[in-house]
């Protein structure tokens, strides 16, 4: 999924859930900013030394200067926050801490959307 998809769906869900402004912002920001964990792997694997290129990679998953259908995609970047143990920890945090709940649930929403996109990508056509 792309940044716009994550931000739009999180904003819609937070609005539909009736979150107050501060909680709404925490939910939406967390659901988008989790993708910053792409950056360290981008630096290591693809030489993204320019912070602006790194930000673009972190938020879009695209390498600046590569075409969208470049044969070098998909990228195999390690993503520290996109792991099952992190999701379980965030779920526990959301259950235990009311203050951290919007941000934890925002990250979990992001992971759910990524999982749905992954399953749809690997689904046989037709």
Question: Could you list some keywords that capture this structure?
Answer:
126 residues, mainly alpha, 63% helix, 0% strand, elongated
Query: Would you report the number of β strands?
Result: 0
Which stretches are low in confidence, meaning pLDDT under 50 for 5 or more residues running? none
The amount of beta strand, in percent, is: under 5%
**Quaternary structure of the protein:** single chain
Q: Based on Cα principal axes, name the global outline.
A: elongated
Rg = 16 Å
Q: What does the main sheet amount to? A: none
Helix run count = 6
- The secondary-structure element order is HHHHHH
Number of domains: 1
Label the structural class. Answer: mainly alpha
Helicity, as a percent range:
55-70%
Summed up, what is this model?
With 126 residues, the protein is mainly α.
Describe this entry's structure for a reader.
There is one protein chain. The chain has helices at residues 3-16, 21-33, 39-46, 51-60, 84-96, 101-121. The protein has 126 residues and is an all-alpha fold. α1 (3-16) runs antiparallel to α2 (21-33) and α3 crosses α4 (51-60). The model has no long low-confidence stretch (mean pLDDT 85).
Note the topology.
Elements: H1 3-16, H2 21-33, H3 39-46, H4 51-60, H5 84-96, H6 101-121
């Amino acid at each position: 999924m792309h940044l716009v998809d994550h931000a739009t769906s999180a904003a819609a869900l937070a609005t539909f859930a009736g979150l107050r402004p501060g909680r709404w912002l925490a939910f939406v920001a967390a659901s988008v900013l989790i993708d910053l964990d792409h950056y360290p792997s981008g630096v290591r694997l693809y030489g993204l030394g320019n912070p602006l290129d790194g930000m673009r990679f972190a938020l879009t998953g695209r390498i600046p200067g590569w075409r969208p259908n470049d044969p070098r995609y998909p990228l195999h970047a390690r993503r520290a926050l996109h792991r099952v143990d992190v999701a379980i920890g965030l779920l526990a945090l959301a259950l235990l801490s009311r203050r951290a709940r919007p941000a934890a649930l925002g990250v979990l929403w992001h992971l759910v959307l990524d999982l749905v996109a992954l399953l749809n990508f690997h689904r046989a056509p037709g």
